[in-house]
């Protein structure tokens, strides 16, 4: 199957991007420390002579390396975006095939025979509005069961609509240390999860990134 290979490649690319970001942050921190030369700008003093308080060849080398890292970061990010589009398309295709099979195999006499079926049909029929494209190990999102590639159909009271990023942030903040119900699609199947936004050693209350679809 293509999707598992693409997902594995995407995970490696995300690890690679994380390494690039760490190296860039380290270079920027060195160049912008108090008295440092900065990431751009001249390396001469007020009289036009090379600054004697810094290692100019080393600074130039670090600036070149930073430019290379930024180009690599852009390329890796573009590859990740393309892979996520492939994964999203594959999952939508599986959803459509699953819906078609259910329509073909369900006879009129069976409609309404199970109270759980309408709920499942309703969840699957709603298109997701976001996908988890980054998640940190040990984060609340990871510990509570979210996975890379999960598609979000409902997050608390948030469903598809306008200003989704702002609404998601507001929903998480207003429910800090409280349970939030989610409806997700994972590998073509609808699932219910509960997550608790909370402070941890990383950024935010969840430790994941929602990519709007």
TrEMBL record:
Q: Gene3D superfamilies in the record, alphabetically? A: 2.30.42.10, 6.10.140.1710
Pfam families according to UniProt: Nas2_N
Task: List the GO terms this entry assigns under cellular component, sorted alphabetically.
Answer: cytoplasm; nucleus
Q: Which PROSITE patterns match?
A: PDZ (PS50106)
Region called Disordered, residue ranges: 88-122
Decide whether keyword Transmembrane is in the record: no
Q: Which residues form the PDZ domain?
A: 89-188
* Keyword tags: Chaperone
Q: Which GO terms describe its biological process?
A: proteasome regulatory particle assembly
Q: Does the keyword Magnesium apply?
A: no
Domain of life from the UniProt record: Eukaryota
Q: What is this protein called?
A: PDZ domain-containing protein
What is the originating organism of this protein?
Sorghum bicolor (Sorghum)
């Amino acid at each position: 199957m293509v999707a598992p290979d693409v997902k594995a490649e995407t995970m490696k690319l995300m690890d690679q991007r994380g390494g690039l970001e760490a190296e860039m942050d380290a270079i920027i921190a060195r160049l912008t420390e108090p008295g440092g030369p900065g990431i751009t700008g001249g390396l001469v003093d007020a009289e036009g002579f090379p600054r004697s308080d810094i290692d100019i060849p080393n600074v130039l080398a670090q600036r070149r390396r930073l430019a290379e890292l930024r180009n690599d970061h852009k390329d890796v990010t573009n590859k990740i975006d393309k892979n996520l589009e492939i994964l999203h398309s594959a999952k939508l295709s599986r959803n459509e095939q699953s819906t078609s099979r259910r329509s073909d195999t369900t006879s009129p006499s069976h409609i309404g025979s199970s109270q759980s079926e309408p709920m499942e049909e309703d969840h699957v029929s709603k298109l997701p509005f976001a996908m988890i494209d980054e998640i940190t190990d040990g984060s609340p999102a990871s510990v509570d069961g979210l996975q890379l590639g999960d598609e979000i159909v409902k997050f608390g009271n948030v469903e598809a609509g306008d200003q989704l990023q702002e609404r998601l942030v507001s929903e998480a903040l207003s429910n800090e240390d409280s349970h939030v119900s989610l409806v997700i699609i994972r590998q073509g199947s609808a699932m219910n999860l509960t997550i608790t936004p909370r402070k941890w050693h990383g950024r935010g209350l969840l430790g994941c990134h929602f990519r709007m679809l």
